[in-house]
Design goal:
There is one protein chain. This protein starts with a helix and ends in a 6-residue tail after the last strand. With 384 residues, it is mainly beta. The chain has four domains: 20-129, Immunoglobulins (Immunoglobulin-like, Sandwich), CATH 2.60.40; 134-211, Immunoglobulins (Immunoglobulin-like, Sandwich), CATH 2.60.40.10; 221-293, Immunoglobulins (Immunoglobulin-like, Sandwich), CATH 2.60.40; 303-378, Immunoglobulin-like (Sandwich). The protein has helices at residues 3-24, 348-355; strands spanning 28-35, 46-50, 56-61, 67-73, 78-84, 88-95, 104-109, 118-121, 140-144, 147-151, 160-165, 168-173, 177-181, 187-195, 208-211, 221-225, 228-232, 239-246, 249-252, 258-261, 269-278, 290-293, 303-307, 311-316, 322-325, 327-328, 334-335, 341-345, 357-358, 361-364, 372-373, 377-378. The strands form ten sheets. The protein has a five-stranded mixed beta sheet with strand order 3-2-5-6-8, with no helix packed on it. It contains two helices and 32 strands.
Amino acid sequence: MNSGSYSVVLIRLFLLLALSADSYGEKVTIYGSVRNPADNVVKKAVVTLRNLKDEVLFEDITNRKGEFEFEGVEPKFYYLLVEHQGDGSKRIKINPRKNKNTDLLLELALNGQKQAVECYLFGDEPPTLFDPILNIKTLETTTEPSRITLSWRDIKQAKLYTIYENDKKVYVGEDTRFEKEIAPGVEYCYSIQASGNYELKGEISKKFCDSAPTESPRDIKDTVYKNTIKLEWSPVAGASSYIIYRNDEIVGEPFITSFTDDNLEFSEEYYYKISALDALKTESGPSVEILAKTHELVEVPILSSMNSKTNITLIWNEVAGASSYNLYTMDFSITYPTHPRYKVVGSTEDACRRIGVISCIIRLRNPTQASESCKSSIAVCRNH
């Protein structure tokens, strides 16, 4: 290493040490006086500076002016305890700044009673009744159907955490995670407060509000009729309506647990998913996707008749895919011919009186498909 490079290294090391010193701060002095409720100085009071384990690091006794002083104190976390046999005691907590720590002047008063622990910073700011080191700034919430989970960063000096749900206390404990079942579609607001030793507390955090979604719809059943698909499912707790997705596009938002999708293409496959929507318009996760297929297009038979004195013969065109036909007469008798021809026996007048309007239901050869209903066909009786 040449002399130039060596000089650069020394300069960088010097700057690093200087920045480190500024970060931790130089040693400071803690000094002040102690008085009683009558505003008289308190002499011979024992003043101790302690670490967070309550171990004594510095000790002094107030002089005839009630004054004490600790020099060469590194800016760290401390307790300062004043004790006097006649006037009682007082404890305070001192927190360091991140930088720019300065001497601390204290004017403490003993009143013979238990007092709340106040918090000071190294400097000239007034004390606070809350410990800023115990403040929780961020509360993370995660939700799943009917459940909410809260989590937050652990604070080393905290002993307990208190959680408030809609301003009502619901948890006190050491864990930094809280889970609870809640009603879906309802907003819940949470705040948290940390507490430490000697009844020190941080400020109650701001409120963090969230809601749990509903469960996804289940038990979906489909019914296919011609080119219409009807979906039905079980009710979802907390749902105010539902969203129907067909091939990933919204096709309906019913308020009930059924939906009819009509005017679809014949012999076409469609994929459906359903989600629930709560009162806050929060959508649940989608249901399991189901596949439904519309039926094949079945043409309406064209029905005609041939009359004689003793019978009428019904004739219609053969429908592709049909294995049988259902014929309904005026007296509600039903027949199932397999060929597009049927003879009504009896006098022509009697046969016409019996036939009237004849409709058909075609049974397809594919056993996986339901029967298809056709429009009515009319048999015309002539020359009887």
